[in-house]
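Sync notes, pocket subgroup
Present: LS, DG
LS reminded everyone that the earlier model was apo-only. Rerun requested with fe (ii) ion included. Inputs:
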Amino acid sequence: MEANLNKGIREVIDEFPAVEKILDEYGIACGPCSVGTCLLKDIVGIHDLPADKEQEMMARIAKIIYPDEVIEIPQVKRKVEDQPKEIKYSPPMKKLVDEHVLIKRWVALIPEVINNLNVESKEGRQLLLDGVDFIRSYADKYHHAKEEEVLFKYFDEDLDILKVMHEDHERGRSHVRTILEALERKDKAAIAEHLNAYRELLKEHIKKEDEILYPWMDRNLSDTQIGELFSEFNTTDEQIGFSPDKYEVFINHLEKKYLQKEA
Ligand SMILES: [Fe+2]
Ligand SMILES: [Fe+2]
């Protein structure tokens, strides 16, 4: 078991495909991950499942890998014994989670933006340009920049989980470039395809950060580091050169337009 714990997850899944299904049942979605080099033991550690669930999952995985042997799974120790968890974020992590809320509201609007796509009218094109501006300025410059330029620097950037996050950010940027190129050609199908792909990407990305990455980071940062992080976030925000409030106004406006929400 030790040897398999130290293998990259893609390798383990390739050899024992049933492991992917088991991980999935415990909310650990490694199958679609494009990197796949995270070690099985790190994946188990990072997800911080309740002790009994982790034990049960590891026993099931051991049965797949060694069907004819009795494998003893060591007792999992936890500092606080396992209650169903409500995630408590430190103040800097809470700030990022709160920023995700506005990004998720934009992501939820994307199907309506696609349904009402009009590349012929000036207003229709402007709406798309405003959406792209939201992604580039708020989601990327304001939010992702804090992650990449501040938060991730507190950790070893060679960690696979951080590589996956960087890769997601880059894929998002690439979708935006393609959307703008498609707008030049008035290619509605390509715009819709890449808006949808961006939507799927961000939904999963935010979930990974809110539920796995940030709680894991909080567990590994000292109180001093958390304080430093918070003040660095504030400095970064002050230097951004625009007010994020106007993006909330933009989202409120779109919700009112498409979802008839009181904004
Ligand atoms: Fe991110
Ligand atoms: Fe994020």
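DG: The radius of gyration is 21 Å.
LS: Residues 91-259 form a domain with the Four Helix Bundle (Hemerythrin (Met), subunit A) fold (CATH 1.20.120.520).
Action: DG to write up.
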